[in-house]
TrEMBL record:
UDP-N-acetyl-alpha-D-glucosamine binds at R94, R123, P124, I125, D126, L127, D306, I328. This is UDP-N-acetylglucosamine 1-carboxyvinyltransferase. Residues 6-407 form the Enolpyruvate transferase domain. Cell wall formation. Adds enolpyruvyl to UDP-N-acetylglucosamine. The modification 2-(S-cysteinyl)pyruvic acid O-phosphothioketal is found at C118. It is an enzyme of class 2 (transferase). Keywords: Cell cycle, Cell division, Cell shape, Cell wall biogenesis/degradation, Cytoplasm, Peptidoglycan synthesis, Pyruvate, Transferase. CDD domains: UdpNAET. Its main location: cytoplasm. It catalyses: phosphoenolpyruvate + UDP-N-acetyl-alpha-D-glucosamine = UDP-N-acetyl-3-O-(1-carboxyvinyl)-alpha-D-glucosamine + phosphate.
């Protein structure tokens, strides 16, 4: 199994290019089930999660061609002949669930094995299912599977108890071909949802309000194949911003949308990092003395939970007391015990972590417990004295394209074994 080895203490410089957003590409691949004709995703990130969801589509006989040289994915859904994707693949990737909405819209039926618990929390799917039920689907649960059926989906008013990203996306996709109008209130507002809606609208859907808390979908008869280039990955960009700050460096990050990064920019600026953005290029200067801050993760436009562990790495290395409160997932501090092994002073109390920063992090062997936790441990390694080995790096490969190569190009001493 691969591990990443980091020798800390290097200052970074130069530039890094950001890929397209994993969390845009996964629902966009699922949405391609809805297209008559070929759907093409350009500039797609070549990530493990992208390969798994592509295999999920192949397991129901969609044709998915991935060109790793040109970062292009071509999907033809005309041959889909099964309503039940491979259980083993679905278990590998929770986002596989995103095929439910499109399958229901296009074929009126889907059967999928229930996602298990995962490291960062139980992550139920009740809101997805409530949405499908409101659109007229019949849901059956049993034997570890969920099956949804509908002769015809009919537009409806849906109020989400919580602005779930996945539920919002799944309901939008299901409603694209429902009869009449669907309104989702308290919808998630993440930029990736707007990107998905833009993709679906290019295909011929009628969606307005995506990116706000109220989304309106007017059903259409059919959707077509299109070509789309997804938005930049704001979490990858945020991770490299922290890499610059934690190594007290000045770096250039190419491929950002300032609007999408506002909560991260605001926190880093509050800490004393100097950030300038022009068009899609961000210049970060972390060479000043940084201050501790308090962070509370919230649905967008609040501070993203997917940046929480990386910020914990930074705060662990900044003198003073910081408090992080995680409100989205109930068990997303798995990285804290690993960071403590590196000398970080972190106390967990329920959903809050109190961090007493130190400039004396020391390298040791640590374990990536999930995708972002793994990235955060690499960041700790950049700041720590000595050598850090991050084990179980497959978690990181799910969401970062060649993270060690990008860091090495910036001047870090890092390699994969
Ligand atoms: C998506 C992102 C993930 C990010 C998360 C929150 C993708 C592929 N993944 O995950 O990287 O961390 O948004 O920004 O885009 N919940 C329910 N019932 C449901 C659905 C969700 O209770 O039916 C709860 C979850 O348990 C969790 C919270 O809502 O506590 C947020 O989950 P959600 O927004 O749905 O996250 P995902 O779509 O799974």
């Amino acid at each position: 199994m691969d591990k990443i080895v980091v020798k800390g203490g290097k200052t970074l410089s130069g530039e890094v290019k950001i890929c397209s957003a994993k969390n845009s590409v996964l629902p966009i691949i699922a949405a391609s089930i809805l297209g008559n004709g070929e759907c093409i995703i350009e500039n797609a990130p070549m990530l493990e999660d992208v390969f798994v969801i592509s295999d999920v589509l192949r397991s129901i006989s969609a044709e998915v061609n991935i060109d790793k040289e040109s970062n292009r994915i071509a999907i033809k859904s005309s041959g889909i002949s099964s309503i039940e994707p491979s259980c083993d693949l679905v278990k590998k990737l929770r986002a596989s669930f995103l095929i439910m909405g499109p399958m229901l819209a296009r074929f009126g039926r889907v059967r999928i094995s229930l996602p298990g618990g995962c490291n960062i929390g139980t992550r139920p799917i009740d809101l997805h299912l409530k949405g499908f039920t409101a659109l007229g689907a019949e849901i059956k649960l049993g034997y570890g599977y969920v099956e949804a059926r509908a002769e015809k989906l009919i537009g409806s008013n849906i109020y989400l108890d919580f602005p779930s990203v996945g539920a919002t996306e799944n309901i939008i996709m299901a409603a694209t071909m429902a009869e009449g109008e669907t309104i989702i209130e308290n919808a998630a507002e993440e930029p990736e949802i707007e990107d998905l809606a833009n993709y679906l609208n290019k295909m011929g859907a009628k969606i307005t309000g995506a990116g706000t808390g109220k989304i309106k979908i007017t059903g259409v008869k059919e959707l077509n194949g299109v070509t789309h280039k997804p938005i930049y990955d704001r979490i990858e960009a945020g991770t490299f911003m922290v890499a610059g700050a934690i190594t007290k460096s000045r770096i250039k990050i190419i491929g950002v949308n300032e609007e999408h990064l506002k909560p991260v920019i605001a926190k880093l600026t509050e800490m004393g990092v100097v950030i300038e953005v022009e068009k899609d290029v961000l210049i970060l200067d972390g060479r000043r003395e940084l201050k501790p801050v308090d962070i509370k993760t919230m649905p967008y436009p609040g501070f993203p939970t997917d940046m929480q562990s990386q910020m914990m790495a930074l705060l662990a290395s900044v003198n003073g007391t910081s408090v992080i409160t995680e409100t989205i997932f109930e068990n997303r501090f798995m990285h804290a015990p690993e960071m403590k092994r590196m000398g970080a002073n972190i106390k967990i109390d329920g959903r809050s972590a109190v961090i007493e920063g130190t400039d004396k992090l020391t390298g040791c062997q640590v374990k990536a417990t999930d995708l972002r936790a793994g990235a955060a441990l690499i960041l700790c390694g950049l700041a720590a004295e000595g050598v850090t080995e991050v084990m179980e790096i497959y978690h990181v490969d799910r969401g970062y394209v060649a993270i060690e190569e990008k860091l090495k190009a910036l001047g870090a001493e890092i390699y994969r074994v």
